[in-house]
Design a protein that fits this description.
Helix content is about 35%, strand content about 25%. With about 300 residues, it is an alpha/beta fold. The protein has a domain of about 90 residues. The strands form three sheets. It has a six-stranded mixed sheet with strand order 7-6-5-8-9-10, sandwiched between helices. A four-stranded antiparallel sheet has the order 4-11-1-13, with no helix packed on it. It has a four-stranded antiparallel sheet with strand order 3-2-12-14, with no helix packed on it. It starts with a helix and ends with a strand.
Length: about 300
């Protein structure tokens, strides 16, 4: 794999070598005729924080991509195996400019496969991955994003982080269930808002993750309709959207292959547009991109301070 990517991963946590005012924006062209178009600096107009931004670099679908696959599979074996099969099918079809790293989210983030564009090592890891343990998505997410942002800061590659999970809020080591404090008090807020701890955790994570620039994708294999898990799943959707990615929640076995396929297709079409923000704007920046090639979709809110 390119030496720059490997060096960035080895330097996990050693951030700050890059210019602090650079926004690395995931962008998609949304041509109405469905034709894929490659963006260029000349085709883009940028407003950042109310002032003009300068496009430093544009990387498109033909440039190198690092896809970091974080696996958080702990519960139903049949769903996990179906997800593994769907992932293997999509991975086998990837072009050679796509490198894949595989992580396991349980009990602290673990690297199962270093970044490679060889498919067999990744497929072997998928086949051998155990389905057991406690859910680890929420706890491992900041570490995973520190890793991927290190790559973004040091390498001219596109980067995406994909979590594949079957997690239930009841299967975390931390207890996110808001207990009823006073059963005899009908006005006890813990009775009315049992999802309060979950929402607090998501709100803290949202603030913590805001400065990261890697787009986050979540593929959830087992949508659950109870009140606490709905709050948890809404939180995952919120985090992915805030980071410029998206989430897919599968309500049946039949939806799992399509969820994997659609996320991989979306990532392959992604551009990376590096924008130098004006020096005299706040750390929270509203971004506006326009292109003469047609409509764009992109992350439009960034926070630069850490």
């Amino acid at each position: 794999m390119p030496r720059g990517i490997l060096a960035a991963i080895c330097a996990l946590g050693l951030m700050g070598a890059d210019a602090p005012r650079v926004l690395r924006v995931p962008v998609w062209t949304e041509a109405r005729d469905g034709e894929a178009r490659e963006l260029s600096p000349a085709s883009l107009k940028v407003l950042a924080g109310g002032g003009s931004g300068r496009v430093i670099r544009v990387l498109g679908p033909t440039d190198e991509l690092l896809l970091v696959l974080a696996l958080d599979l702990t519960e139903e074996l049949s769903l996990a195996e179906l997800a593994k099969e769907a992932l293997a099918e999509e991975i086998a079809k990837l072009p050679p400019n796509v490198y894949i790293a595989v992580l396991r989210a349980q009990d602290g983030l673990k690297v199962l496969a270093d970044p490679t564009n060889e498919r067999e090592p990744v497929l072997r890891v998928l086949r051998e991955l155990p389905v057991a343990g406690k859910a680890g998505l929420l706890e491992s997410l900041p570490t995973a994003l520190r890793l991927t942002d290190a790559v973004l800061a040091r390498s001219a590659v596109r980067v995406a982080l994909v979590y594949v999970t079957d997690s239930s809020i009841y299967n975390y080591r931390d207890d996110y269930i808001n207990p009823v404090i006073n059963y005899s008090d009908q006005h006890d807020l813990s009775r009315r808002f049992p999802e309060g701890l979950i929402k607090e955790k998501i709100a803290r994570l949202d603030r913590q993750l805001a400065p990261f620039q890697t787009p986050l994708y979540v593929i959830h294999l087992n949508y659950r309709s109870d009140r606490l898990n709905e709050a948890y799943q809404s939180g995952l959707m919120q985090l992915a959207s805030a980071l410029g990615g998206e989430s897919r929640f599968c309500r049946s076995r039949q939806e799992i292959p399509e969820a994997v396929r659609s996320v991989f297709t979306r990532i392959l079409r992604m551009h990376r547009v590096d924008v130098e923000a004006p020096a005299r704007v706040a750390d929270r920046i509203q971004l506006q991109l326009e292109s003469d090639l047609g409509p764009l979709s992109y992350r439009n809110r960034f926070q630069l301070s850490r």
